[in-house]
Write a structure and sequence with these properties.
Elements: H1 3-27, H2 34-41, H3 43-65, H4 68-89, H5 96-110, H6 112-126
Helix pairs in contact: 1-2, 4-5, 5-6
Length: 127
């Protein structure tokens, strides 16, 4: 394993330790016992044994993608950012390609599926 891979694995393992510590700390209201420290150090095994495969994926989903309320807030921020970008840049674009790029970037700020189209469009112009 190279140095970059070792750093990546270390970061992921440390994040898992911190996440497991936080989960157990909240679950046991700060009353951690020595067995909890073992669970924290062996967190990949603990999560799969204690929560199961489905529960582990649910916990990851909640951590990375969040709840419906968090998704609503993210959508509101995306719509605000897209609107601000469109208002700031629409009058300065000239021609169908530039204005199409402004519109596509504005849509990409709101819908992640369109972000892939935007980056494909940018790369096609650069190459």
């Amino acid at each position: 394993m190279g140095a970059r891979e070792a750093v990546f694995v270390s970061i992921v393992y440390t994040a898992g330790i911190l996440g497991t510590f936080g989960h157990l700390y909240r679950a046991y209201q700060g009353q951690l016992r020595p067995r909890h420290l073992v669970y924290i150090l062996l967190w990949p095994l603990w999560w799969v044994c204690a929560k199961g495969v489905g529960g582990t994926f649910d916990a990851l989903s909640e951590a990375f993608w969040g709840s419906d309320a968090r998704a609503g807030i993210s959508l509101a921020i995306g719509v605000f950012t897209a609107g601000d970008y469109l208002v700031s840049n629409w009058s300065g674009c000239g021609g169908a390609v530039q204005c199409g790029g402004v519109a596509l970037k504005g849509l990409a700020m709101t819908a992640p599926q369109i972000a892939g189209l935007y980056w494909a469009w940018v790369l096609s112009l650069a190459g």
